[in-house]
Model the fold of this input.
Amino acid sequence: MLPKRVSREFIDGLPKSELHVHLEGTLEPELKLKLAQKNHIDIGQETVEDVEKTYHYSNLASFLAVYYPGMDVLQTEEDFYELAMAYLQKAASQGVLHTEMFFDPQAHIVRGVPLQFVIDGFYQACVDARAFGIDAHLIMCFLRDMSARSAMDLLHAVQPYRNKILGIGLDSDEHHNPPLKFMQPFSMAVEQGYHITMHADVDQIDSIDHIKQALEIINVERLDHGTNIVENKDLVDWVNQLHIGLTSCPLSNELITDNDLKGDEILDLLDEGVKVSINSDDPAYFGGYIADNYAALANEYKVTPQQLVTLTKNSFETAWISDKQKQFYLEDIDNYVEEFEN
Ligand code: ADE
Ligand code: ZN
Done:
């Protein structure tokens, strides 16, 4: 039965779906150092402590300045496989049954890494992870600080891999890079049958304008972050009417803003009926995987077990799976709660 209080044990066992995780953001310092040595890449640090010392950010741009250079160690198809497999094993151990994972091909292509290494390595990990009970899919992101032309080129380049990619997203530096800049590649992506989503990072200078463009012009199915809609009642109504999912990431919020997990916003939106979910974003850089994000929220805010259950249900209801699959996963959650013993 539903416990009286939230515990880590209850959080860990809840069946979850993760819809906002960047595979490159799961690169743990240990793996970064191992791949640097194997591939003869000088990353400037030699110990885990030295790597961790570089992990200080005050906003999105300062995070990205640490994040992109770290990717240099990813060179071969096996490196991409190993990275994704490590995340999938960790996610499975934290109760994830289904995940839709972002990746950034442009960040690798510009370094001379073939697109095929990236997609085949990541995709093979998705296939193999079925053996330990996790259903994993890929969302290819356009980097919004690159041109729309480059996004179009990428969309053409991935045509041979069409069946390996579930959806298209938009990430990287939001400042001066509005959704409208990518109208053409996103409408082409929809024509090609991809699902679409977009980052609307927290507390950006143009957050509200960008969210309006994403919802009203691009017609995204989900918003990644997007919690700034709480400032605008019309946007909350719009998101509710269209059943748009919001993929929120408390530990990322904490490190990218001034120590604010945005728990009040998340819980207010939940109260308003918005389909908000909890996710890890870049767990190796922000200090925790999905269950750690649920726990951080529950530790710092007054969150009831019922609210946690709703958050996990939202993560399946807004996943890109069939209605039948949603029904099975929601039943899994109900069974877990029913059988849970305090
Ligand atoms: N790339 C990786 N993490 C990101 C985030 N939180 N926002 C935008 N781009 C990202
Ligand atoms: Zn993100």
